[in-house]
Design goal:
The structure is a homodimer of 339-residue chains. The first copy, chain A, is an alpha/beta fold. The first copy, chain A, has 3 domains: 44 residues, no CATH class; 133 residues, Response regulator (Rossmann fold); 130 residues, Rossmann fold (3-Layer(aba) Sandwich). In chain A, 45% of the residues lie in helices and 16% in strands. Chain A is built from 14 helices and 12 strands. In chain A, the strands form 2 sheets. In chain A, strands 2-1-3-4-5-11 form a 6-stranded parallel beta sheet, sandwiched between helices. The first copy, chain A, is elongated, with a radius of gyration of 26 Å. The model of chain A has no long low-confidence stretch (mean pLDDT 95). Chains A and B meet through helix 4, helix 5, strand 2, helix 6 and helix 12 of A and helix 4, helix 5, strand 2, helix 6 and helix 12 of B. The structure holds a DNA duplex (30 and 30 nucleotides). Chains A, B: InterPro entries: HTH_LacI, Lambda_DNA-bd_dom_sf, Peripla_BP/Lac1_sug-bd_dom, Peripla_BP_I. Chains A, B: It holds the Pfam family Peripla_BP_1. Chains A, B: GO terms for molecular function: DNA-binding transcription factor activity; transcription cis-regulatory region binding. Chains A, B: Keywords: DNA-binding, Transcription, Transcription regulation. Chains A, B: It comes from Arenibacter nanhaiticus.
DNA sequence: TATTAACACGAAACCGTTTTCGAAGGGTAA
DNA sequence: TTACCCTTCGAAAACGGTTTCGTGTTAATA
């Protein structure tokens, strides 16, 4: 096992001072060509690489970004993460990934741990529990310490910081409009409880699209499910009970399950009933028929979040101007709607 | 913006030395109760938290684990990652996640970057390109520096280190045996080229199961696809050409696509033809019919990998004993086979 | 010959901790 | 009074770098 070589080793070996070695390796003008050549050759030979930790301590910059998401086994979050990682890597940053598991406590613990010097900034999507509790003191703490923060997807108005979201309202609006243009009249919405910022927005878009096209908004065509467990029975019952010819679902799982259920009753998709689901994930692509989806462009979202964060990290000036970037959605048409 | 408080600040404020503060906060016997009380109260009031970076430099321990995987938008890898993260977090470690994007160069760059002090050990699955190139010098370098390394899933015999794999051969063997017990005779295998360690093992299990049950092994019932792009036409043609009543696929995508194709031809699953796919992912669960799957227990795999790594990191002794843990698979029966 | 500038390098401080060792001061025993 | 021992604290080194400032040497200039 060959130990990592340090400046001190090189200095001792070549009988020069540590400062000379440091400068020589940075090609400083101060050092004579002879000495530089000698030192650089030696360093290359022994594959010298500066210690990241020492540099971090000195510069008070870690070149690490902390990312906290509710769950990693989740298609949308992974695409966002990919966007973050790619951009960050290209800029020389590494990414520390933590999962909150939708738990407030885990979110707080992870943040506090990382905030003690391990990272230069945070990118995060709030956990469900945090949104329900509506407690954002851990975020405020971090902001007060001057650590840059970017929120994406699951955000809150309580915190002033950079944000990236998709235009959830517009996405739902587009989807419902497509249904209407396809001649659908009985358009249902299957969503989650309101504490999610995204669900609220999508519900708004759904309602607005109906009203703008002179269709009635009817409460009984909206099914609100509590998060966490997919209540299949509630979905089945809802689909059996109401007279419906189109369904907008706020996630893939609801949509896929609904499609299976109506298919098992002998209905034909999209002839008898058509579907659109949020998040253009893997299920939409491979279901039968393919599920028309509202694409959220997760990777782009991640890249933008990373760009905003690194911009803040690297800007010297301490201006307090925050921007919220809103990404438009795209409808990806597949077999579950008439195209 | 309130700056992070350091030992030095406390020392100056209370007119004691830095060492006294440090000791007092660790409740050292050396310091009088009065002084300790005073210092601890002050520290608590100003919410003092030691700087992770400084501690890392001092201890030469970062409490960070580097994880390098080919892709994050991939169900199996995310489940493994979840297992790693959970275990590591419980042990006080953070996880730095990098993606190699199946690229040799990215794998090398990421490893070298992290190896310079940022992490205490690596957990990784080899990129496709690395396996094709069969070049593991970057792994050897890291091992030589005494940095612990655990390989999972995509491994190699060229490197001596701890490893976790699933029993791919046994998984395929089980699946084929199930087909045979269900009365299937024309059992096909759709797999990737041989450079993947996992594909090779699965092909072995497929062959062995056939031979052990006195069925012929026929080359024309095995379709080997190059990785990266799912060649849908090749699959269709293969399914149309051969007389087949059961198909084992080495991943979900192949299986789902195959099922769609035979369904579109009017065949009934599992009556006319049945399917089993590797990786019990989200597609298997939500396809119609559900895909019987060989579960790889990714989360357990991740937990074991993390356990092995942390064990190595924290053990003082420098024994060179490496173990390979082999996880057995489980068949998760669903509608694509007769049960 | 004395002054000065350029060149090449080293000493030391610093980032924020931990830890070893030494020392001041007071108390006790001989 | 002397010797010794606790108790309690601080100085300093160390982790591995960067950077400022100073200094010795040499050569050019007055």
């Amino acid at each position: 096992m060959k130990q990592k070589i340090t400046l001190k080793h090189i200095a001792r070996e070549l009988s020069v001072s540590i400062s000379t070695v440091s400068k020589a390796l940075k090609n400083s003008e101060e050092i004579s060509k002879d000495t530089k050549d000698k030192i650089q050759a030696f360093a290359k030979l022994y594959n010298y690489k500066p210690n990241n930790i020492a540099i971090s301590l000195k510069n008070r910059r870690t070149k690490n970004i902390g990312v906290i998401i509710p769950d990693i086994v989740h298609h949308f979050f992974t695409t966002v993460f990919r966007g973050i990682e790619n951009y960050a890597n290209a800029k020389g940053y590494n990414v520390i990934l933590c999962m909150s598991d939708e738990s407030f406590d885990k979110e707080v613990i992870n943040m506090e741990l990382l905030a003690n010097g391990s990272i230069d900034g945070f990118i995060m999507a709030l956990s469900a529990e945090t949104q329900i509790k509506n407690d954002y003191n851990h975020l405020k703490e971090v902001a007060e310490q001057g650590i840059p923060l970017v929120l994406f997807d699951r955000i809150t108005d309580e915190i002033e910081c950079d944000k990236v979201v998709i235009n959830d309202m517009e996405g739902a609006y587009k989807a419902v409009t497509k249904f209407i243009e396809d001649g659908r009249k009985q358009i249902a919405l299957i969503t989650t409880e309101d504490y999610y910022s995204v669900s609220r927005e999508r519900a708004k878009g759904y309602k607005q699209a109906l009203l703008d096209h002179n269709l009635p908004y009817r409460e009984n065509l909206v099914l609100k499910l509590p998060f966490m467990d997919v209540d299949e029975l509630a979905i089945n019952e809802f689909l059996d009970r109401e007279k419906i010819d189109a369904v907008l679902c706020v996630n893939e799982i609801y949509a896929i399950h609904s499609m299976r259920h109506v298919q098992s009753k002998g209905l034909s998709i999209p002839k008898d009933i058509s579907f659109i689901g949020f998040t253009d994930g893997i299920l939409s692509k491979y279901s039968t028929p393919g599920l028309t989806a509202v694409s959220q462009h997760g990777e782009k979202m991640g890249a933008i979040a990373a760009e905003m964060l690194i911009e803040k990290i690297e800007s010297e000036k301490e201006e307090e101007t925050y921007t919220t970037t809103v990404l438009d959605t795209t409808i990806v048409a597949r077999g579950s709607t008439n195209n």
